[in-house]
Amino acid sequence: MDLKRRPRRLRASETIRKMVRENHLRIDDLIYPMFVMPGEKTRVEVSAMPGVYNFSLDEFVKALDEVVKLGIPAILLFGIPESKDSVGSGAYAEHGIVQEAVRIAKKHYPELYVITDVCLCEYTDHGHCGLIEQGEILNDPTLDLLAQTALSHARAGADMVAPSDMMDGRVAAIRDLLDKEGYAHIPIMAYSAKFASGFYGPFREAAGSTPQFGDRRTYQMDPPNGNEAMLETALDIEEGADLIIVKPALAYGDIIYRTKERFGLPVAAYNVSGEYSMVKAAAANGWIDEKRIVMEALVSMKRAGADLLITYHALDVARWLNEEGRL
Ligand code: PBG
């Protein structure tokens, strides 16, 4: 065969493959989601997410030690409150569980970048992300509560806030209040393209946030829609979003790609709970090679255009990357 072009030449050894590799996972890409709850000396493993825990604050601090030692730059915090009510008071309480977790994290590890999830669903007794009237999830009256939540996180010392509720106008409401109260320097990472996904199932067990009636389809996006994700993202940027989250990640590579291509802002891919559980379950059965699958899935998000990776695999990934660095 008289072949001029032979792509296999550049695949002949690990050395040349490494030299021409186009995308890389870095420890600096990683954001580790963590769950905090009231109590003492307890960590409860989430049953569908082996290796992921709900931490009491003292255990949370211990766990942070490992996060920091591994060089992971950032965490994303979720709270499970002592009690829930119809207006999600725990979300914006000055001494709520997330607010206290932020304080304690920043006190022990000032360099650790602490991001907070801003939403009501973990704090409402009905499990929805907004206020309810006659079975309807209200948009505008919810905005002030979301802004108050973000403000209480900033006051506690959060470095960045991440609204995940999908109400219209929430980024503007949060930006306004933060600016007014002296927090113009706090960036907003918006869950702009957040789909109504079956992949959040295990998270809802972890956070006890399964809606008590109906579902989230009137506020989270319909999975078949891509153009709508571009609209949501454009609106969030207009309203002041600094970074964009695409969520879930694995089945939404096209959305990651389009978001990066079109807007150029930093994009975070959220490798969600169900994506984690699937890998863990298959690995526990010996059906897949966990490390290989995790690294391949995550680098696919980088290849699609993500800058940052929010992943429950962060500790393992950091360990693997550190080991490779030492070889
Ligand atoms: C809160 C929120 C959810 C997730 C992140 N923030 C749950 C939901 O929208 O039901 C899901 C994260 C995951 O599945 O890992 N609104």
UniProtKB/TrEMBL annotation:
GO cellular component assignments: cytosol
Binding site for 5-aminolevulinate 2: S273, Y312
UniProt pathway annotation: Porphyrin-containing compound metabolism; protoporphyrin-IX biosynthesis; coproporphyrinogen-III from 5-aminolevulinate: step 1/4
Binding positions for Mg(2+) per the UniProt entry: E232
Cofactor(s) the protein needs: Zn(2+)
EC number: 4.2.1.24
An example Gene Ontology molecular-function term: porphobilinogen synthase activity
GO biological processes: protoporphyrinogen IX biosynthetic process
Sorted UniProt keywords: Heme biosynthesis, Lyase, Magnesium, Metal-binding, Porphyrin biosynthesis, Zinc
Enzyme class: lyase
Annotated 5-aminolevulinate 1 binding sites: R204, R216
Binding positions (Zn(2+)): C119, C121, C129
Catalytic activity: 2 5-aminolevulinate = porphobilinogen + 2 H2O + H(+)
SMART domains the UniProt entry points to: ALAD
Active site: K194, K247
Known partners and oligomeric status: Homooctamer.
Family: Belongs to the ALAD family.
Role, per record: Catalyzes an early step in the biosynthesis of tetrapyrroles. Binds two molecules of 5-aminolevulinate per subunit, each at a distinct site, and catalyzes their condensation to form porphobilinogen.
NCBIfam families according to UniProt: PRK09283.1
Name by which UniProt lists this protein: Delta-aminolevulinic acid dehydratase
Species: Desulfosporosinus acididurans
